[in-house]
Design brief:
single chain; alpha/beta; FAD/NAD(P)-binding domain; 2 domains; 6 helices; elongated; binds NADP nicotinamide-adenine-dinucleotide phosphate
Amino acid sequence: MNHYNLIIIWAWSAWLPAWMYASRYNLKNLIIWAMPGWALATSHKVENYPWTISAPGKEIMDNFRKHAIESGSEILQDTVVEVNKTDTWFSVKTASGKEFSSNYLIYATWNKYRKLWFIWENEFLWKWVSYCATCDGTFFKWLDVAIVGGGNTALTEALYLAELCKKVYLIHRRDTFRAETSWVEKVKNTANIEMVLNEEVESVSWGMFMENVNLKSWKILKADGIFVAVGNEPETKIIDHLNPEKDAEWCLVVDKRQETTVKWLYAAWDVTTNSNKFRQTIMSAAEGCLAANSIHEDFMKSGH
Ligand code: NAP
């Protein structure tokens, strides 16, 4: 079993800065990712990350990967299925049967898509109901679709769908948005997006294919598919048995050094309580580098 100073699990945008700083401090480290970038990699456009005026999230993630690979990092594309902890180190098992150990872990995982729980949502999952416009938008080319949510994801995905689809209904439960104003303005200025405000989805109905989105107000929208973009929830199940403290939204409680309440277990990005929960790529990057720096401080102090 190969031993490392640090293993970085999963690959949100926290990993590159975490790896960069860990490597500069000469901490022997391994990155294990199932799918690099996840939400960032599927973002239609990112316009709020330094050095990027406007780029698909995948392009940013590809640059992250190129940076790491060309600098000689050790990356394993695999899924972590088990994490255990002894008094001295962590052991990490992957789906392909590999096993590693490390003194420290940075847990920077993806979050689960939040469901809306409307009638037939589960039954038509990934058929007419999707949580990722970038992944599934092309299936609805020239058709009419609905997208639900009022955050950055819903609005950027609505803009992407508007490039492909005939008509896009943006359904939001309020008449003000959580999303950045610049996205709201772009949506308002897009001719084939219709905002459907102060409305919630009750169900979908279908014949041979999906036909309608039925709203709780009894209004009916003609749509061939529906995208749900109502946020996400922290995914921590592989470390839950270590009993890290969580807040009311199930985010991992971390101190200002990014350490969880489990000794030597650090965390970064959406799964944590830090950055005032301002879930942006730039904050994730900062949390990743802070975690690596804190680990280096511990390492220098304790030699662990
Ligand atoms: P979010 O910001 O949490 O927004 C979720 C939206 O879904 C909110 O408008 C919320 O409505 C609505 N919602 C939640 N539960 C609902 C329900 N049961 N029924 C109806 N509507 C419901 O989630 P997000 O848009 O996925 O973004 C997640 C994080 O990633 C955010 O911090 C965001 O800024 C970041 N992000 C950034 C970018 C970018 O900068 N390019 C792109 C995508 C995401 P209310 O507003 O009424 O609560």
